[in-house]
Task: structure prediction
Amino acid sequence: MAEKNRTATLHLDDKVITLPIHAPTLGPDVVDIRKLYAEGDVFTYDPGFTSTAACESAITFIDGDKGELLHRGYPIDQLAEKSHYLELCFLLLYGELPDAQQMFDFEARVTKHTMVHEQMHYFFRGFRRDSHPMATMVGVVGAMSAFYHDSTDITDPWQREVAAIRLVAKLPTIAAMAYKYSIGQPFQYPRNKLDYASNFLHMCFAVPCEDYTVNPVVAKALDRIMMLHADHEQNASTSTVRLAGSSGANPFACIAAGIACLWGPAHGGANQAALEMLREIGTVERIPEFIARAKDKDDPFRLMGFGHRVYKNFDPRAKVLKQSADDVLGLLGIENNPTLQVAKELERIALEDEYFIAKKLYPNVDFYSGIILDAIGFPTSMFTPIF
Result:
């Protein structure tokens, strides 16, 4: 809410422009520059929106200096410990954590919409088998508006809500179908008796000729990965969705645009890049060579999965996923995996080496999520769809 007695004064040659200052609930004050062009005939220049708020929001707050990530005021580490993905979805959508009845009703609504239109099975056949799952998802999600005509008007609150429920419910099904199609296996229908993460794992790894039982530790780790990537303020894909939505485009088209943006290696593709880097290093003995390259300002090589553009001291999501990584790797008995050994040694160096400490190059969420997804059995091409 703006404080009427607080303003900022901008001097432009012989012009003096008074701009209101808004005080947020959390974070720094905001200077309202909407009349800047009209009164001053100038624009602001802020590549990357590093000093720009494009909208008012009460969903997520990040304090990069303190390493805090809050969803509707709740710290992400508390949510990851005590909640689950669908409960977090309810919180993000409606602003408050649900009571038992609300959670039951919400889960029932999501479960009702997990299947996709049967005609979509034929739509997949138009893609090459070696298509990247993200390419398939961009096309299929964008085409959802052709199948669900009753939830395309973003000006209608009821249609917006139905579209949101459908997207939460169907995106795991579509992602699993994209994976199954890429490896030539038959699609698996959703199992509505399973929880959200377990259902996704079943759709990805079950086959008709064998029984498949989801390990609860693996399902919990995947659920945490989903939670930790649920929302992250005004990031690139969120901004893309909002920009597409500003034209009145239907929600499915907007989300498809966001998925296309998410595919970039600097965004959703970062965990894939981090794991591929670990594989490139190969062995613990080769780490010094790559550390030296990372420190060489003339070498284009850089460590993927370390440091963060927003978090200046540590990534709170990484602290949560580190424990999940230890749990999953211990359960699967692959602690001595060469890639994992490289990851652990790199982690140790990043936390102890003065160069990395000074540069604040600590392991981030992409570093650990890639390790977990690889251990579960997902190929790197599926890392970004899961994001």
